[in-house]
Amino acid sequence: MSTQIPIQKSLKTIASLVLFIWFQTTLYAQTKPYYFNDFNDPKAAWFSAETDEYAFLILNGSYTCSNKSTIGDAWKAGSSTFINAEKNYKYEFLLKETASYGDNVGGIYLDAANSKRFEFTLNPERSEYKICSYQNSTYTYLYEYFGTNTAKRSTAMKPRGTTNKIEIEHKGDSVYFRLNDTELLRIVFKDSGFDDLTGGVGIIMKTNMTLELETISLFQDVQIKNIPNLPTGIKRENLGPNINTIYSDKLPYITPDGKTLYYSIDSSPLNTGGIKDGDEIYYSTLNPDNTWIKSINIGPPLNNIQPNAVISVTPDNNTMLVMHQYNADGTFKASGVSLTNRTETGWSVPTDITIKNHYNKANTNEFSLSADRKVLFMCIQRDDSKGEKDVYVSFIQADGSFSEPLNVGNQINTKKDELTPFIAADGVTLYFASYGHPTYGSADIFMTRRLDSTYTNWSEPLNLGPEINSTNWDAYYSASASGDFAYLVTGENSIGKIDIIRVALPKSAKPNPVVLIYGKVMHSVTKDPLKADIQYVDLKTGKEMGTATSDPKTGSYKIVLPAGTYYGFLAQKDKFFSVSDNIDLNALNEYKEIERNLYLAPLVTGQTIRLNNLFFDFSKSDLRKESFSELNRTVELMNTYPTMIIEISGHTDNIGTEADNLILSQNRAKAVVNYLVSKGIDISRIQSKGFGKSKPVSTNETEEGRQLNRRVDFTIIKM
C-alpha cells in the first residue's frame, strides 16, 4: 500500500498509506466536516517513518514532518480521501512551521488527475506564500512570491511557531485561497484542475524544515449509500496473534468452505528473505472450537524472495491463483498471475496464466477468479480506464488463456482507484474497494450485483456501512461461500501496521445462496479414493458450468453450485466411466452443504453402470431433454471404444402392477437405445431389456429407496 515515486530530479516522494479520518455525518454542513483528523490517535494510518533524511511521525496530537536534507531535496507525504470534485467543497488545514531555512517553503498539496498536483506553501519568516500547480516536471504559478518584492507579502500570515489556517474552497464558479480567513487569491473553477481533484492530500516541505499539521478538515455535501437494513452492533473481530503479527498482515483469502485462510505477511523475519522480503504466503486452518491454528509459512515453491500472495482459491481447495509468474525452479520470472495445483507432495510450481493484450499502467494489480474458473476479475489501469485503476473482466478461452480485459463500466469504475476485487461464490455478487465512491475513510468496501451476462451491467454499488468499513483503509475482502463471515484488512486497532479481521455479514451484505457439494471420488468396486476431474453441467442446456479436481491423496472434492439451475455433476478419469449425480437448485433460498460421493466405474467386461441423469415423466418413457448430457457421454464412450457392446436395462420400483412395470422398464430401455442409434451408434452394438421391479438395489419402503430403484443401467458385454 505504500510506494515511493520520484516526482522530479531533486524532489522525492513518499506516497502515504491512508488518511485516518473521523466520519461525522453523511450530510454536508459547514459547521461539521465530512472528513476530519486531529491526529490524537497514534495509530492513524498516515505514513509514519523516520530516516536520516526525513521524519513523518504522529506526535502529541499533530502530524510532525521534518526534512533533514541539506542538499535541496523536498519530501512529500500524503494520503487519499474521498471527494466529489464537481460539487462545492472546502479543505481546511491548521499548520504550524516550527523550523525552516532561508527562503524555503512548506505547506499542503492536493492531487488532481493526470499526475497533476496543486501546492499552497508558506514562508512565515518572510510572510510570503506560493500557490502553484505541478505537472510533467513543470511548475505553473498561480501566485508566486519574490524575496525582494515586499508587495507580495501578506500581513495575514502568522509568524513561525504559530498556527496558520489554510483554506482552499470551491464555491460556485470560483476557487478561493485563504490564509487565516483572509482571501489571497480567487480563480475561475472551470478547467482549473480543481474540477478534477482525486482526493490525494498531504504535506510538502523543503530543506531543513519542520511542519506540524494539527488538523485537516474537508467540508462537502456527500451522502453515503449503504446496504439496506443495516444492523448495528456488527463486531469487527481481530483474528488474534495466531494470524496477525507486528508486521503488515494482508491479502486474506478464505476458502469457500470457510475452513482455511491464506494470507501474506510483509517483511517478517520468518520470510524467505527475512525482513527485506516483501509479502510471503502463510495459511491457517480453523479448529472445531472456531479458533485458528498458528499460521504456517506455505514454503517453496510458492514463496520466494519476491512478493508472494494467494489471489483466489477454487472451492475444492486444490487449485490456487497466485501473484506473479514463476520460473521452473520456483524463482520469480515476471509480474502477472499464475496457477498452482495440489499434488501428493505439496503445491506445484505455478504455471503462467495468459491474458490477451494484457498491460497495466499502475504499479499494482489485483485479481479474483470465479468459483467456476471461467471468469477472471482484475483491477488495473489501461487506456480506457475512467481515471486510475478500474475493475476489468476476462473470460476463459478454449486453450486455457483469458480474453482481453473488458472494462465493467461506469456504474462501478470512477476517476479514482478501484482495487481488490472479489467475486463471490454465486458468480454474481462483486465486492471491491474504492476511493471514488463516497466512503467513511480512505478506501471502503462496496458491493454490487451483476444484472446480466454482459458483465457491464451492474447494480448501484453500496457501501457495506460504518461497522464493516472503518475510518481507516479497508480492502482485500473475501467471504466464504455461505456468506456468514467476510475477511478483510484494516489499520484500525491493529496489532501491527495492518491486521486481518473478520465480520459476521448481515443478510443484505451476503451473496446469493449457493450449495456446497462435498464428498470423495472413489473406485466403484474397491472404494479406493481417486484423483479425478469434476465437471458440472446445466442439465437443461447441456452447457458445462464449471470444473474442479479431487485431492490426489484423499479423493476429496468440493464444488459450489449457485441457485437457479438443475445441475448434473460427475467425476472424470481415463479408463473409467463416471456414475453421475444431479441436484435441482431452482428453488434454493438459503446456503446448504450436501455430501455426495462420486464413483468411477472401471471399463471392463461385466461392469454395470447406472445412468443417474436420465429423466422421464411419471409413468412415461419419453426422454426429457435433461437426459441428453448423460446420453451424449455414453455416445462419446462408445465412439472411443468402437468394439464395445452394451446392454441397456430398465428398472422400476414396486409401485403399480408387475405387468405395467415390466412394460414401462422395457420402453424406457428402448428409448435410450433409440437415442444412441440416432447419434450414430450401430444398433448391433446395443442390447436392451426391461426388468420391471425384479432387481431392486435399495428398499422400496422409502421414497429415497424407490428413487434408486427407478433407474436405467448399462452393462458392458464386450470391450
Give the helices and strands, then pairings.
Blueprint: E1 11-14, E2 35-37, E3 49-50, E4 54-59, E5 62-67, E6 74-80, E7 89-99, E8 106-112, E9 116-123, E10 128-135, E11 138-143, E12 163-171, E13 174-179, E14 182-188, E15 197-205, E16 209-220, E17 236-238, E18 248-254, E19 260-266, E20 280-285, E21 296-297, E22 310-313, E23 319-326, E24 332-343, E25 346-347, E26 351-352, E27 366-369, E28 375-380, E29 390-395, E30 406-407, E31 418-423, E32 429-434, E33 444-449, E34 462-463, E35 474-479, E36 485-490, E37 499-504, E38 514-523, E39 533-538, E40 544-549, E41 556-562, E42 566-572, E43 576-579, E44 581-584, E45 592-595, E46 598-602, E47 608-610, H1 628-640, E48 645-651, H2 658-678, E49 686-690, H3 703-709, E50 711-718
How confident overall, as mean pLDDT?
Answer: 88
Please report the number of helical segments: 3
Which bin fits the share of residues in helices? under 10%
Strand content: 35-45%
**CATH H-level name of the largest domain... which superfamily?**
Glycosyl hydrolase domain, family 43
Biggest sheet features: 9 strands, antiparallel
Calculate the terminal CA-CA distance, rounded to whole Å: 61 Å
Radius of gyration: 32 Å
Query: What structural category arises from helix and sheet content?
Result: mainly beta
Shape: elongated
Query: Total number of β-strand segments?
Result: 50
Low-confidence regions:
1-30
Taken together, the total number of domains comes to 4
CATH hierarchy: architecture of the largest domain? 5 Propeller
